[in-house]
Amino acid sequence: MLWDDFLNSVHHDWRGDGAAEDRLDDSDWLDAWMDKQQLVVDHRPTAKDITSLKRLRALLHRMAKSFVDNSRPAVEDIVMLNEIMADGAVIRTLSADDDGYRIKLSPIGKQWTNLEAEIAASFSRMLTDNEPSRIRICDNPNCLWVYYDDTRNRSKRYCDDKMCGNLMKVRRFRARKKAESSSNNTN
Ligand SMILES: [Zn+2]
């Protein structure tokens, strides 16, 4: 989904000390990402565009975090989200294929503010069509990947069980061994 992909544009060194790297500052990364998400703008981002994108990301992160904390986003944050979506005028086109009918939304403008509106709309759609209580932040404190838990029993604690899940298992094991050996030493 667009919203969580965007939120994870801050990359954390999940295997190491959690050092953060902001990929919005990396124009090659940004190009590849927009390509993947099929987002189109008509000019390179200015410093102001990037600052504005980061503000949107902080807003969405704050809102996502409120659901992770079993709370609800602040009213001011919803107002802010609506202001951003106000730039999201779209043209709807109906298309038909073997699977049925689909409405495709194409933004009218090609400004960065139009792109922000698309991202904000993706987050809003998730809140209305899915279950916000399934938003998660990876339990590895050095990872903090944001994701949507679509498991049946809502028990997904890590972005990836094979990666962060295993790493944390190893860390817990080591911490237990260390605690055992230090308590043995004091005996
Ligand atoms: Zn993780």
TrEMBL record:
Transmembrane segments: none annotated. Pfam families: ABATE, zf-CGNR. Gene3D superfamilies: Jann2411-like domain. Residues 134-177 form the Zinc finger CGNR domain. It comes from the Bacteria. InterPro entries: ABATE, ABATE_dom_sf, Znf_CGNR. This is Zinc finger CGNR domain-containing protein. It comes from Cohnella luojiensis.
